[in-house]
């Protein structure tokens, strides 16, 4: 088993990565023994993994209840959040409640936010079951629901007590969802780690065929990078903004198209290519590196262009609500080299027009 620590003083926690984590009660025992807890999952993941997790948590000494929500990004809403609160209240869960998120990033973000709010804050565990949630969303404590007008707008920073990554769960993940997760994996290579990017280029066949060793290494490396970034800047005052590469454009695509039409990772992929083209047009990235960014996304079956019908105006409306906006100015993460990125605040409307109008 791999164990990575997220160092945040009193709120530090481990990320545990192994093939059969769900079947290892002893890993859960320190967090759940003697506790009354609620597992929250969705109607796709629950039939696959809920009973295994329930069994392990009971073996580990917990009193277990569960709630199954509707699946999908379109359900990352106030209504779903309220369904969690209603269940907790109807079953008289108190401040000693422990919540457990079993699912992808949608469930993880929502359950984390429920934990941040319920009775002013209760602890929670992340049990991520998609590639995307295992490499990114389960770590770092960003929790939220969407607003119809923009992504992740209502939320809180609330760190989990532990993250349990079962790599075996990826065996049931649809290939489109696997590709979406790869967008965030590739992101780490571009913002932080050139050798990792090169390894991703070389390891495509192994990763796409779910080679256990390759998968475990990719997940571990992403979690290490995210743990380092979050430990340095928990609430995104500085370096953490780099994890938002591709997201200014990507979140605009998700909101414009309707949540769930473009998967988050697909929108991030197109957004990352757009950010790289922006860097190239500003003479901040070489043509050869831009091409490598485009190629790796295409090789991993990800979109490299935004929806053709999205005009500059359609990007600008949601982008003006981006959380990185400061003093009314948009800020973009752009790659300088593969392995290095920066946050820029001086992108002009003309540059954006030339980028977006030249698409398609
Ligand atoms: N908090 C963060 O730091 C952070 C980081 C990245 C993304 N996010 C958020 O995460 C969300 C995207 O997460 P996601 O890509 O995991 O999407 P998701 O949670 O919607 O999961 C994708 C699909 O896979 C299904 N699924 C999950 N595990 C499965 C499995 N093992 N086998 C079969 N099907 C399975 C889900 O039910 C869903 O249909 C977005 O809302 C995004 O904003 C948050
Ligand atoms: O952890 C972070 O910080 C990230 O930015 C990771 C992103 O992949 C993730 O999609 C995050 O939810 C986006 O954050 P937001 O603040 O732009 O909503
Ligand atoms: Zn993301």
Automatic annotation (TrEMBL):
GO annotation, biological process: amino acid biosynthetic process; aromatic amino acid family biosynthetic process; chorismate biosynthetic process
3-dehydroquinate synthase N-terminal domain boundaries: 67-179
Chief location bin: cytoplasm
Database matches in InterPro entries: Dehydroquinate_synthase, DHQ_synth_AroB, DHQ_synth_fam, DHQS/DOIS_N, DHQS_C
A Pfam cross-reference name: DHQS_C
One GO molecular-function entry: 3-dehydroquinate synthase activity
Pathway in which the depicted protein is active: Metabolic intermediate biosynthesis; chorismate biosynthesis; chorismate from D-erythrose 4-phosphate and phosphoenolpyruvate: step 2/7
TM segment ranges: none
Gene3D superfamilies, per database record: 3.40.50.1970, Dehydroquinate synthase-like - alpha domain
Residues annotated to bind NAD(+): 71-76, 105-109, 129-130, 142, 151
Assigned EC number: 4.2.3.4
Cofactor note text: Binds 1 divalent metal cation per subunit. Can use either Co(2+) or Zn(2+).
Domain (3-dehydroquinate synthase C-terminal): residue spans on this chain: 181-325
Role according to the record: Catalyzes the conversion of 3-deoxy-D-arabino-heptulosonate 7-phosphate (DAHP) to dehydroquinate (DHQ).
Full protein name: 3-dehydroquinate synthase
Gene field: aroB
């Amino acid at each position: 088993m791999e164990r990575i620590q997220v160092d945040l003083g009193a709120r530090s926690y481990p990320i545990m990565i192994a093939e059969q984590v769900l079947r290892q009660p002893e890993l859960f025992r320190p967090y759940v023994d003697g506790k009354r807890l609620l597992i929250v999952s969705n109607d796709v993941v629950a039939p696959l993994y809920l009973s295994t997790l329930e069994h392990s948590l009971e073996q580990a000494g917990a009193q277990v209840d569960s709630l199954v929500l509707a699946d999908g990004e379109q359900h990352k809403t106030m209504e779903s959040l309220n369904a969690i609160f209603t269940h907790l209240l109807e079953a008289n869960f108190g401040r000693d409640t422990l919540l457990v998120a079993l699912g992808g990033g949608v469930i993880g973000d929502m359950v984390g936010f429920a934990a941040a709010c319920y009775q002013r804050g209760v602890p929670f565990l992340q049990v991520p079951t998609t590639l995307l949630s295992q490499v990114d969303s389960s770590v770092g404590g960003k929790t939220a629901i969407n607003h119809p007008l923009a992504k992740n707008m209502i939320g809180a920073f609330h760190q989990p007590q532990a993250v349990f990554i079962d790599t075996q769960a990826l065996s049931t993940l649809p290939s489109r969802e696997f590709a979406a997760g790869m967008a965030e994996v590739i992101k780490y290579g571009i913002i932080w780690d050139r050798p990792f990017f090169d390894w991703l280029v070389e390891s495509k066949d192994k990763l796409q065929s779910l080679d256990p060793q390759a998968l475990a290494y990719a997940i571990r490396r992403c979690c290490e990078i995210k743990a380092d970034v979050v430990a340095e800047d928990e609430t995104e005052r500085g370096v953490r903004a780099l994890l938002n590469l591709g997201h200014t454009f990507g979140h605009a695509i998700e909101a414009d198209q309707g949540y769930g039409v473009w998967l988050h990772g697909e929108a991030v992929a197109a957004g990352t290519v757009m950010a790289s083209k922006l860097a190239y047009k500003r003479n901040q990235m070489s043509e050869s590196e831009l091409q490598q960014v485009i190629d790796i996304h295409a090789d991993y079956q990800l979109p490299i262009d935004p929806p053709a019908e999205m005009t500059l105006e359609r990007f600008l409306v949601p982008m003006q609500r981006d959380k990185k906006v400061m003093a009314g100015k948009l800020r973009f993460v752009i790659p300088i080299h593969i392995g290095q990125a920066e946050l820029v605040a001086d992108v002009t409307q003309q540059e954006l027009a030339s980028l977006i109008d030249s698409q398609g």
